[in-house]
Write a structure and sequence with these properties.
315 residues; alpha/beta; 6-stranded antiparallel β-sheet; 8 helices; 19% helix; 35% strand; globular
Length: 315
C-alpha cells in the first residue's frame, strides 16, 4: 500500500528519520514493541529494493509510522536511494507492521537491552513499552563516537530507564561478559546491531551461563567477507550441483536453482534453514545454533565455507 512521506528529519551523522502516513490521514494499524515495516521502492538507477526498518517511538495505535535509516555509503544502494532521492510528499509502498522481534514483559528477571549503533531503533519501542509497564531495565548503547548515539533524546523520554552509553573510541570495546553478568532465572537480553557484536554477545552469554532462549537478537548488515571464495555446493539427495558466488547466500542460490528448502528469517537467527553438512568445512556466521548443531550442519542463509570452496549438503 502506498504511504505518504509526510516528513524527513535529519537525526545526526548519516541518519534520517522518515515519517509515513496514510494518504487519507486515517489511523494506522497498531504495532508492538520491536516491530518493523517493509519498504518497497525503485531507485533512480532502476534498481528495485525491499528493505525492513524497525518502527521508532511508542508502540500501539499510531497516526504516523517513524523509521530511522542510516546511509551506508558502501552498502547495496537502498539506504543511499532513500537518503538521496526521496523527498517529503513522495509516495512509497509499505507492508506491515510485522512483529519479528517480540518483547516479553511477563518475566520476573532482569531485562537488558543492548544496541550497537543504529541498532538502537527497535530497542526504543521496547524501552517505551517496558517503561509504560513499570518494568525496570538497563539499556547499553554502544557506538564509536558520541555523534553516533542517534535518537538518544528519544530514549530519555522513556520511563524506568537506565541508559548506559559506551564509546569505543574513548574506552575501547565493551566487556560484554561483565555487561551481561551471570545468568539468573528469568533474565532476558534483547540486542540489535551488527553481526560481530551479536556473535560476541552469544559467546559472552555462553560463558556467563545464559541459555539460548534468553538471548533475543535482531541483526543487520551483510555476512559476506572479503576473503570469501566461490563455492561449489553439491546436494546429495537431489543429485545436483549449485555454484555460489561470493556476496550471494547459499540459501538464495538454492532457491534460484528451484531447490526445495525451508527458511524464515534469512539472518541466521531462527535456524529454519539448518542443513546437515556431509562434506566440507562450514564457516559459521549464525546467531542461533548450538555447538553440537554446528558440528553436524549449518545455516545456509548466512554461513559460508573456506577453501577449497566445496560443500556436500543433505538436500
Amino acid at each position: 500500500m502506498d504511504y505518504l512521506i509526510s516528513d524527513i528529519i535529519d537525526r545526526g551523522t548519516g541518519v534520517k528519520e522518515f515519517q509515513l502516513r496514510r494518504l487519507d490521514g486515517g489511523a494506522l494499524a497498531p504495532w508492538r514493541p520491536g516491530s518493523h515495516i517493509m519498504l518497497r521502492f525503485r531507485a533512480a538507477s532502476g534498481c528495485r529494493y525491499e528493505r525492513h526498518y524497525s518502527l521508532v517511538g511508542v508502540p500501539g495505535a499510531a497516526e504516523v509510522y517513524r523509521i530511522a535509516v542510516q546511509r551506508e555509503a558502501n552498502g547495496k544502494g537502498g539506504s543511499r536511494s532513500l537518503h538521496d532521492e526521496l523527498r517529503t510528499g513522495m509516495l512509497i509502498d509499505v507492508d506491515g507492521p510485522h512483529d519479528g522481534f517480540p518483547l516479553d514483559t511477563s518475566g520476573a528477571g532482569r531485562v537488558l537491552l543492548v544496541a550497537g549503533g543504529i541498532g538502537i531503533t527497535p530497542l526504543i519501542s521496547m524501552a517505551h513499552a517496558l517503561g509504560l509497564d513499570g518494568k525496570p531495565y538497563t539499556l547499553h548503547y554502544l557506538a564509536r563516537n558520541a555523534d553516533r548515539l542517534q535518537l538518544l533524546d528519544e530514549l530519555r523520554t522513556a520511563t524506568s530507564a537506565t541508559v548506559l552509553p559506551h564509546l569505543s573510541a574513548l574506552h575501547g570495546h565493551a566487556d560484554l561478559a561483565v555487561m551481561l553478568g551471570p545468568y539468573q532465572m528469568g533474565d532476558m537480553l534483547y540486542a540489535c546491531g551488527p553481526t560481530p557484536l551479536l556473535q560476541a554477545l552469544v559467546v559472552a552469554g555462553q560463558r556467563q551461563g545464559w541459555p539460548a532462549a534468553a538471548l533475543r537478537f535482531e541483526s543487520f548488515g551483510g555476512r559476506a567477507q572479503a576473503g570469501d571464495v566461490a563455492l561449489t555446493v553439491e546436494l546429495s539427495l537431489s543429485e545436483i550441483t549449485v555454484d555460489v558466488a561470493p556476496g550471494t547466500s547459499i540459501l538464495d542460490a538454492l532457491i534460484a536453482a528451484d531447490v526445495f528448502v525451508s527458511y524464515e528469517c534469512k539472518r541466521g537467527e531462527c535456524g529454519n534453514c539448518y542443513t546437515e553438512v556431509l562434506e566440507g568445512q562450514p564457516l559459521h556466521r549464525d546467531l542461533c545454533l548450538t555447538p553440537a548443531m554446528r558440528a553436524g550442519g549449518m545455516c545456509t542463509c548466512v554461513s559460508w565455507a573456506g577453501p577449497p570452496g566445496r560443500l556436500v549438503l543433505a538436500l
